[in-house]
Amino acid sequence: MPHTPLIDVHIHYLPQVLVEVLEARVDPPLIRRTGEELTLHYGGDYREEMDAAASEVGSLLAVLDRHGIDVGVLSINQPGVLHLPEHEACTAAAAANDELAAVAESSSGRLEGLATLPWQVPVAAAEELERGATLGLKGAMVCSNVAGRSLDDPQFDVVFEAAERLDLPLLLHPTVPLSVDSLGPYGITCAAGFLFDTTTAVLRLVLGGTFDRHPGLKLVVGHAGSLLPQLAGRIELEYRRGAIARTLPEGRVPADYLRLLYTDTVAGSIGPLLSAIDLFGNSHVMFGSDYPFWDPLDSISLLHDPHLKEADGDRIRGLNAMDIFRISRVAMHSDNDRGGNLQ
User: Fold this and answer.
1) What is the Cα–Cα distance from 137 to 114, expressed in whole angstroms?
2) What domains appear along the chain, each with residue ranges and CATH number?
3) pTM, full prediction
4) pLDDT digits (tens, 9 = 90+) for 226-259
5) Are 10 and 222 a contacting pair, CB within 8 Å?
């Protein structure tokens, strides 16, 4: 039988041009370097350590080879350019996307890219998304808030309209959550705050009418749908009893919108992943690793879990990603272990 490619839709890439911009900053987000280690300061008490080599093309391809990943879809580290002054944000986004497109082009089909956008300048962000499409980028990242602004702000409709018209998926990824000050002292920003911020961002988009205005929008909610699979039933009951202060178009309920979303397998364990598959459907779930912040083995191991049906496995491994991100050029990994190296 033909090999189903393993496509990783959740790999972070930090362009050198963005490293240079963030190293020059004195206020978060900023980067400080110690030898080959980069410390990304996001604001509040939240920071991440990252090996500078993780964004080198040779290193990325070696990681893909080691784990039997055929194609990696790269998204630029959050928060991208969202906290830069407007003109600088537009310039830095264009340079970062040029670099990302060049990386993808040089990889012979092993790497694809998602654009970073200056969302704080919505018209410019829409224009950059269109330009990114001409470069061969497969979509874009959208963060759970734009430097504190909620995504349901009507000013962002111009970007969502462009994504819908171009049929380019948007990867919804958390950034420094609005509740960061209460999370920092215990270091639980990434463990809990990220998922809460992404979940509330989706609910605001649903209740704010974004999906009604842009019904063809493809939104990929990172991290196995965040908290939506666990809260979907509660959201439905709270809406039906009138405890949610917004009313959807007649005859529609929140579940109608949640089923339109896509997600990845960055779950950490099989239970949340199965909940995501149950909510979104097996045609809306794609493999993701969250490299370099997570070891790809943590996500690959879930593909081998006996609870995943074989039919689900092939879709999730790569077939869904090929459809959603319109990936036609797949350079197959050449090792014998096509299932992902679990050694």
Assistant:
1) 6
2) 7-14+57-324 (3.20.20.140)
3) 0.93
4) 999 999 999 999 999 999 988 999 999 999 999 9
5) yes
